[in-house]
User: What shape does this take?
Amino acid sequence: METTIEVQGVAVPAVGLGTWQMTGRECVEAVSDALALGYRHIDTARAYRNEREVGEGIRASGVPREEIFLVTKIPRSDAHADRVRASCEASLADLGVEHVDLLLLHWPAPHVPLGETLGAMSALRDAGRAAHIGVSNFPPPLLVKALERADLLNDQVELNPYRPQDELLALARERDVLVTAYSPLARGRVARDPTVQEIADAHGKTAGQVALRWLLDHPKTCVIPKAATHERRVENLGVFDFELSDDERARIDALGR
Assistant: This one.
């Protein structure tokens, strides 16, 4: 079973580590441990205030930088062109890297023309500071407008069995755009869901693993669950050795309706 998602000729690791609300030594150790376990996709953001720790974790892991798909995000408060550049340079300095693999606008910024923001991000890509650019939390109509203004790899959104994002996923398939699912386990709700748990029991898996497998069965979709413990990081990687039936997927689909 494939462990990467290919979009626009780019191979993106299907399961990444989300670092929202991770700080200090916990963040350093989480990133280092995740990379030691085999994760190769790390997600952070300027707003998380943990880029220095993420960078330290990468260096502590000993995994070569070129093997890691590293993502960070520009706050919408920095959406003006001059601040886009400054935000990116500050992120690179804190991460201790020459470039990120994916640079996102964290949230739509209605106070700034979209073309201005995306133009500045495109210039950073052209300058080699970001291999690819994208957006986050963009609903389908706004993503269409963004794609008219720049070549984008990704839209990162909240996506889980209770927030299925069908329209966005259809658009992503049509336009060859990667969808990254954050909060894929619905902040613990999945683990308490009797339908998901029943399916998990049938496979000898956890409810979280089933939810991640369901998400990865959607085309052009990767997941970045936060995992604060070693055991949870191991668990979240254990989603490539089983398959859901059409009936099981349909039962999970129904949870979002």
Summary: Residues 155 and 192 are 28 Å apart (CA to CA). Residues 81-95 form the longest helix (15 residues).
